[in-house]
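Recall that a protein's primary structure is simply its ordered list of amino acids. Everything else, from secondary elements to tertiary packing, is in principle encoded there. The following example makes that idea concrete.
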Amino acid sequence: MSHLKNAHTSQTLPVHRSRDFVVTNGVAEGDPISFADELLMDDIYQITETAQRLPLSVAMDPETGALTVAMQSAIGSAGNAIYLDSCLTLMMSDSTTCEVIVLVEVEDGGVEEVYILPLAPMPARKDFRLVGINRDAALSRFAEMACVSFARGTHITLASGEQRKIEDLKVGDRVLTRDDGAQSVRWIGQTTLRAVGEFAPVVIRKGTLHNENDLMLSPDHRVFIYQREDHLGAGRAEVLVRVRHLINGDTVYQQDGGYVDYFQVLFDEHQIIYAEGIAAESLLIDPRTRSAIPATVDTQRHTYRHHHDFEVTETLLPHQNAAEVLRKASSS
């Protein structure tokens, strides 16, 4: 059965090409990063001074979960297969560790390119010692990135109108949804992650989008905006926007440092709910996120919904003032 038809089948990943991350001390000195079978523990790597993170857009088959390079990708060859090879743990000289996901692009059965997706900032000219290779963790870490999450302390609107903190929600609680009225929570997940890189929460400051308090969400979380006037030129009033595309360093910013408690809320179907007064999506089950959900949780009803078509791309958003434009559009 097709769960999502054409919805949510692409994602853009900020990656380094293999030649950007090279062994500077060790058995494989001079070699770029490669896939797990070719790596040697304790080799020391550095990000080259000229390295740039580039946008690799990947498309995901909604039935099988297979990844390919998307047509719109700035790098890679469209249609080539992309494999999640492994998750590497790297240690800096101060004993700080970070993780990277290794992705392999394959064409005609051969390796075309290897990429790394850092899950934390990796400065140039710093030593990174390879201390861990996990072939089984890449899929779960990729899933964690895709699981839209609310940070601890977020107030969720219940069907009764009560504002309840996300950490106090329970399975069976009735939550107000935009499209289907009161709906029961079916599952709540919780993860504690280092608040760095791809896992650092995005903060939408109080009032920015008419929110009652500061709202902290995972970077790929999408908020729903109803434009009274189509200020974006989207051709429709209703839009979904990833919060990472609203970052302006002032009213919307990414908060690096320490740890963050993330909570995921699942309903029988994908829903738009209310968090600090902002309409935001619940957890969506698709091939990326399914591995993060316990096998005992029934996800069969997560089918295509009309609001999946409302997402707008970053190219449609004003670079510095997207949040302000959306606030005005929703209150015009």
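The helical segments are 137-146, 322-331. The radius of gyration is 20 Å.
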